[in-house]
């Protein structure tokens, strides 16, 4: 099983962060080029990355301001059947956002890209919440030629 874990502190409102991580219009501000779908449990979210790839997720669970659990139902390679879990915890001066990205069928080698790329997108989320301007694809930090 391959697994990536990250945590970031964001100076912002937990409700705004929670919305930014599962509502289509908000996902376009820090992660994907375009997003559509319904932000409710059992429904589908499609994240489009220009003309490169579309990742489709089912929302497995939403616990307001506490947890988002997504399951990838359509995507290439190690995206297929992976699970994304985002947890949220408010502190005195920030909200801690935790990410767990895992796939039982993938190898650690296949997840090397994700272990480096997720911090780029989490920092984009932080920038979006704190300044109003994130860096969604294709304007995110690149980690290799052709990324």
What does this structure look like?
The protein has helices at residues 14-20, 24-27, 112-131; strands spanning 2-10, 34-37, 44-49, 53-63, 67-74, 83-90, 95-103. It is an alpha+beta fold. The chain has a single domain (2-131), classed as START domain (Alpha-D-Glucose-1,6-Bisphosphate, Chain A, domain 4). The protein has a seven-stranded antiparallel sheet with strand order 1-7-6-5-4-3-2. A hairpin with a 3-residue loop joins strand 3 and strand 4 (53-63). The longest helix is centred in the C-terminal third of the chain and has 20 residues, at 112-131. The protein is globular, with a radius of gyration of 14 Å.
Q: How would you summarize the topology of this molecule?
A:
Blueprint: E1 2-10, H1 14-20, H2 24-27, E2 34-37, E3 44-49, E4 53-63, E5 67-74, E6 83-90, E7 95-103, H3 112-131
Antiparallel strand pairs: 1-7, 2-3, 3-4, 4-5, 5-6, 6-7
